[in-house]
């Protein structure tokens, strides 16, 4: 039995009110949903809340699944919409990136780890500073390893729109990180 067929059977049972089927579906997909929510929200408590909200929507909308797309596409679409709504509700966006101190000064092993953590923090802030749809396409493409076709289906946009959003996201990341690169911190 394929995973998608199994998911569809579970979804049919969920639509009939089967809580065991729901628990099984959650166990099967919660890791991927949580990872997406975490990459988008950048915080464990928010990611946990988003994950719970997403699976609540699966429970609530199980009957509305028409099978026009793969279950995984439908689930990711619910997740993406929840993340986008989260961003609208939160409405907090970093004004600017704080410039780190001299990251190249410390070259020992502990210093290298600190430098790497600082670079990751800066990159996370840069991704957070992107317009919300660019951020989502970037996360789906680079962190979730989704194809352009999958992203288009998940976000309900054309493949050319995916390409454009991804191009602009990369371009904007370059602009955001350029001052750091010029200072030798990147």
Describe this structure in words.
With 186 residues, this protein is an all-alpha fold. The chain has two domains: 3-90, Orthogonal Bundle (Rna Polymerase Sigma Factor, Chain: A), CATH 1.10.1740.10; 109-182, Winged helix-like DNA-binding domain superfamily/Winged helix DNA-binding domain (Arc Repressor Mutant, subunit A), CATH 1.10.10.10. The chain contains eight helices and no strands. Helix 1 packs across helix 2, helix 2 packs antiparallel against helix 3 (44-61) and helix 3 (44-61) crosses helix 4. The termini are far apart. Residues 93-99 and 102-107 have low confidence and may be disordered.
Keywords, separated by commas or semicolons:
Rna Polymerase Sigma Factor, Chain: A; 2 domains; 8 helices; 186 residues; mainly alpha; Arc Repressor Mutant, subunit A
Distance between the termini: 48 Å
What is the succession of H and E elements?
HHHHHHHH
Number of strands: 0
Number of helices: 8
Radius of gyration, Cα only, in angstroms? Answer: 19 Å
Quick recap:
It contains 8 helices and no strands.
Topology of this structure?
Layout: H1 3-15, H2 19-41, H3 44-61, H4 71-90, H5 109-128, H6 132-143, H7 148-155, H8 159-182
Helix pairs in contact: 1-2, 2-3, 2-4, 3-4, 4-7, 5-8, 6-8, 7-8
